[in-house]
Amino acid sequence: MAIPTQGAHPSKKLSPRLTHDQGTFFISKFDVILKDIMETDKNIKVGVGVMIFKDGKILMGKRKNAHGAGEYAFTGGHLEYMESFNKCAERETLEEAGIKIKNIKFLCLSNETTYPPRHAILIGLIADWESGEPKVMEPNKRESWEWYSLDNLPQPIFLPANVMLEAYKSGTNYYDKE
How many helices (H) and strands (E) does the chain have? Predict the structure, then answer.
């Protein structure tokens, strides 16, 4: 059932008591906030993932407190307004793992609809480690960072990271939702 808002945007002041068909029901601030989030989440996000290589191994971290919690993934995040793909990859890697990267190259493009209501376009990149030792820079988002051999990866793997691994192994660089 849709949450009535008396024609007002949820961010506007809303009476906590609404009437409907001669009955009265109450709507909490949480319901209005949730409705606003669900409407906002219908926007497609652009994410950049970075598979980083060092001495034949790749860097993966265990996610927490978000979709894919407990799964292993690469560094990455949302592309900011007017930001290049490479700058996003460099920024997210430094923010999340405290390391610098170089030789950034395109890997794949994927239409990600695995975690509804989220919908994102994944731009998968590969890069080489340049300097620094990986450390958890955002303890509310990651448990750990480790280097793994491609033939001995941790499980479970975050589904967008799996797409990137498949792209790397197969040479396929375009994944649509169908």
Answer: 3, 10
Q: Which two tokens stand for residue 41?
A: 């989440």
Mean pLDDT of all residues belonging to the chain: 84
Q: Which of 12, 8, 9, 5 is nearest to 27 (CA)?
A: 5
Distances (CA, A) of 16 to 24, 132, 178: 11, 53, 42
DSSP secondary structure string for all residues of 59-92: EEEEE-SSTTTT-EE-EEEEPPTT--HHHHHHHH
CATH match for 45-175 among 3.90.79.10, 3.90.1300.10, 3.40.190.10, 3.40.50.1860: 3.90.79.10
| Distance, CA of 69 to chain centre | 11
Q: What is the C-alpha separation between 49 and 77, in angstroms, rounded?
A: 7
Residues 50 and 125: beta-carbon distance below 8 Å: yes
Q: Of 97, 65, 91, which is closest to residue 77 (Cα–Cα)?
A: 91
Q: What pLDDT digit, counting tens, does each position of 30-79 carry?
A: 455 445 555 555 789 999 999 999 999 999 999 998 889 999 999 999 99
